[in-house]
Amino acid sequence: MKHVLSLLVENHQGVLSRISGLFSGRGYNLESITAGVTTDPGITRITLVSSGNENVLEQIKKQLNKLIDVIKLIDLTEKPSVHREMALIKVHAAPKQRGEIFQVADVFRTRVMDVGMDSIMLEITGSCEKIDDFITIMQNYGITEIARSGLISMEKTKKIKGGR
Amino acid sequence: MNISGAEMIVESLKKEGVNIIFGYPGGAVIPIFDVLFAEPSIHVVLTRHEQGAVHAADGYARSTGRPGVVLVTSGPGATNTITGLATANFDSVPIVCLTGQVPKGMIGNDAFQEADTVGISRPVTKHNYLVTERKDIGRIMKEAFYLATTGRPGPVLIDFPKDIQIKKIDDKYPEKIQIRGYKPVSKGHSGQIKKAVKILKEAKRPLFYIGGGINIADAAGIFNNILEKTDIPVISSLMGIGAVPSDHPRYLGMLGMHGTFAANMAVSSSDLLFTIGARFDDRATGELKKFAQQAKIVHIDIDPAAIARNVTVDIPIVGDAKTVLEELYPLIKKPAIDSWIKQTVQWKNTHPLSTETEGNLLSPPLIVRKISEVFPDAIIATEVGQNQMWAALFYNFRKPRTLLTSGGLGTMGYGFPAAIGAQAGNRDKKVIDIAGDGSIQMNIQELATAVQEELPVIIAILNNGYLGMVRQWQELFFDRHYSSTCLMRRPSCPRDCNSPGDQCPPYVPDFIKLAKAYDAVGYRVTEEKDIEPVLKEAGKSKTRPVIIDFIVSREANVWPMVPAGAGNDEMMLGEGSLI
Ligand SMILES: Cc1ncc(C[n+]2csc(CCOP(=O)(O)OP(=O)(O)O)c2C)c(N)n1
Ligand SMILES: [Mg+2]
After folding, report:
1. How far apart are CA A91 and CA A99, in angstroms?
2. Taking CB atoms and an 8 Å limit, are B123 and A58 in contact across chains?
3. Active site (annotated) includes residue B469
4. Which pLDDT score is estimated for B1?
5. How many CB atoms lie within 10 A of CB A44?
6. pLDDT of amino acid B168
7. pLDDT for the residue numbered A78
8. Structural domains in chain A plus CATH codes
């Protein structure tokens, strides 16, 4: 099963390599990792997606928590949260196919970032599944390049007092 | 007052109570050695190899309980520490390793003797630092000692660019530290402790399984009180040895691949494995599917990641072994388990360890027994291989921190430098390295260190002319193909030789001549009657290290043995017979 882990870590040199090194060193699966500074310039938020059985994920969480530079770890898989990814996709688009592509692109609420002689670049934001779906459809036209940001996630706040 | 980075480093060491460090100089750390030159309160042991320095600091730390400190130069100096750091990391030994680095402005330029020390050492340290600002030295030194010695201890490395060592600022060692991502627990969860008490009360065949955590946490005292109070049988991992006297009536010995019959039978029959500071290493458990099948498991460990990693644990308790046991002590009672005790005693009596071995030269177990008789209060370091198992099984350990052995990493070459470190920290004790003829050659250069430091370490080489442990596997599982394990082999030998004897070429090196070359003392023992007198003679040396070259049976094997894939109760007991 896929797990989304949100980490607050010290904004030090080498923190990312500590985390990715832990995954490669122990043979854990790391599907995506994103990092960016928070409102506190001393703290970076890292969102990572991993998969494995429950035992492995338990180990991953324990090992991450052991890292001195990890201040806090939340497993967002178990919590109501918002997950978003962004992708830039360059699609092969002969002039006579463009209309069709724009129509599909519109349904997926993408934005056109660049139009060239025989290709267009689209920006799409959403869940990973939505992006996967869009990519599958665009493959019919021929994708020349893809850049995906990796997932970023955040826990939702409570909606009623005492509840969630 | 304005002081240099190097002065700040040495000031930090003094503030941490360090009075000995193990090191090797080079261009990138000359400023630090220069400050040490004028510092009478810190003794610098110059080893002959940086790996030796780390093992020595490790042996010092394991035997004294204080952190070991290492100081080496950049590049090759730093890379040479890696095996030592990995050894210490695996066995949770507190070490602070200081490395020099090229000046900050040159990092990344492939400067002379540059290495990505922080990158290379990251997976083999508890934590590490590259100091990028002069003002951070004090804080980082303080954090390093704190991290190394608290929680699950381990090595911490600090990399100091040379310009930072030289730069002067007004500076003081900090009084306090705060690391927001590091909060080791010490107290166990009271609810969990109560559950453990309850399950212990209900058990019919309870068994204590102790590991290195007990020694590290200095919990042997309270554990022995619990043992007296409950009379529950106890088994130990390699790292737990020493916490309970080896001749204690309830002690069944070490479990695992080369564990005792009684320990392995007990763990397979127990209905409650009450585990303290052990981590269910595969050498201890054998085939996991067959491990302790009838037992519920209580697991006390300071490292949450060590719990429930290899086995399913019924009652996990995260905490410091000593703190948790102290809380347990008043709550537990002596259970009525007479028939279980009787059973374990019977296992002990029907299958005691035997000093008889294959071959008609000296018996290695017998030598270890004699060492135990002549030096009952020694600190024993071991190398790795058969020598290590014989030392663990046949020496009568009576106190914690008296067995120094590379358990997790299994580092050949660990024992001798570790013995040097232990002797440097325990001048009044006898320190003996029980060595293999292969392993001792991995750090033999440290003989010069021991001679110079006037450390009367005894190196008892169980010389079988083989990489014995590997040879044993080849004998048992690879059709006696002694491939690259004979240490006497010459081109004239038959290609497939597996019948060692009088026709074999002479062994090199001649350890007696080697001892002489280093101005150490050397003895060779080939007859049983000489074992004891030579040991006694060796014990008289007060300032010079002694090598004793015991010529032992070449094909002696370590028994019992749990072959790969078998359960702990499926032991081979010698002559290859499976029980
Ligand atoms: C650095 C290192 N290299 C290789 C090994 C694999 N190994 C384990 S035991 C052993 C043989 C050790 O031979 P010796 O020191 O003579 O000890 P003996 O088993 O003969 O007592 C070897 C090669 C190891 N543990 N460590
Ligand atoms: Mg040998």
Report:
1. 13
2. no
3. yes
4. 86
5. 20
6. 98
7. 84
8. 2-79 (3.30.70.260), 82-153 (3.30.70.1150)
Q: Does A133 touch chain B (CB under 8 A)?
A: no
Helix (H) / strand (E) element for A6: namely: strand A2-10
> What span, in angstroms and rounded, lies between the C-alpha atoms of B234 and B252?
6
CA B387 to ligand 1: nearest atom: 21
Report residue B134 as tokens. 């002069």
B88 CB-side CA count, 13 A:
38
A53: contact with B, CB 8 A cutoff: no
DSSP-based three-state secondary structure for B545 = coil
Size of interface A-B (CB pairs under 8 A): 38
Q: Do domains B2-170 and B364-551 have the same CATH topology?
A: yes
B175 labelled catalytic:
no
Give the residue on A whose Cα is nearest the Cα of B156: A68
Q: In a mutagenesis test of the B interface, which of A13, A68, A69, A72 is the best target, namely the one with the most B β-carbons within 10 Å?
A: A68
Give the neighbor-by-neighbor strand order of the sheet with B234-236.
B251-254, B234-236, B206-210, B272-276, B296-301, B315-318
The alpha carbon of B476 and the centre of ligand 2 are apart by a number of angstroms equal to 17
Amino acid found at B206: P
User: Does the annotation count B113 as an active-site position?
Assistant: yes
Q: Is the domain covering B364-551 a CATH 3.30.56.10 domain? A: no
Q: Which residues of chain B fall below pLDDT 50?
A: 576-579
| Topology at the third CATH level for domain B190-350 | Rossmann fold (3.40.50)
In CATH, the number for domain B2-170 is: 3.40.50.970
pLDDT of A163 above 80 = no
pLDDT, tens digit, 9 for 90 and up, residues A25-58: 999 999 999 999 999 999 999 999 999 999 999 9
Residue B579 pLDDT = 46
Q: Which helix (H) or strand (E) holds B138?
A: helix B137-149
> Which chain B residues contact residue A10 at CB under 8 A?
180-181
Q: How far apart are the first and last CA of chain B?
A: 73
ipTM field: 0.92
> Which residues are near ligand 1 (CB < 6 Å)?
B 383-387, 410-412, 436-439, 462, 464, 466-470
- For every residue of B1-19, DSSP letters joined together read -EEEHHHHHHHHHHHTT--
In angstroms, what CA-CA distances link B529 with B144, B331, B479?
Answer: 51, 52, 35
Query: What confidence score (pLDDT) does residue B355 get?
Result: 95
User: B281-310, pLDDT tens digit by residue?
Assistant: 999 999 999 999 999 999 999 999 999 889
Are B304 and A67 inside 8 Å of each other by CB?
no
For residues B293 and B570, the answer to whether their CB atoms sit within 8 Å is no
Instruction: Scan residues 62-121 of A and list those with Cβ closer than 8 Å to B.
Output: 62-63, 65-71
Per-residue model confidence (pLDDT) at position A39: 97
| pLDDT of amino acid A162 | 67
Please enumerate in sequence order all residues whose Cβ is within 8 A of that of B278, keeping only pairs 6 or more positions apart, or say none. Answer: B209, B210, B211, B212, B213, B237, B239, B240, B284, B301
Going B132 to B134 to B139 to B142, the CA torsion angle's sign is: positive
| Domain extent listing, chain B | 2-170, 190-350, 364-551
**pTM of the predicted structure, to 2 decimals:** 0.96
Report pLDDT for A161.
77
Task: Quote the CA–CA distance of A39 and B276 in Å, as a whole number.
Answer: 43
Query: What's residue A95's pLDDT?
Result: 87
Q: How far apart are CA A107 and CA A159, in angstroms?
A: 30
**Cβ contact (<8 Å) for B309 and A9?**
no
Report the distance separating Cα B445 and Cα B65, nearest Å.
26
Which run of H or E residues covers position B101?
strand B95-101
What pLDDT is recorded for position A158? 84
Contacting residues of B for A69, CB less than 8 Å apart: 181
Contact: B122, A58; criterion CB under 8 Å? no
- Tokens read off for B565: 């894939």
Set B7, B11, B16, B50: catalytic member: B50
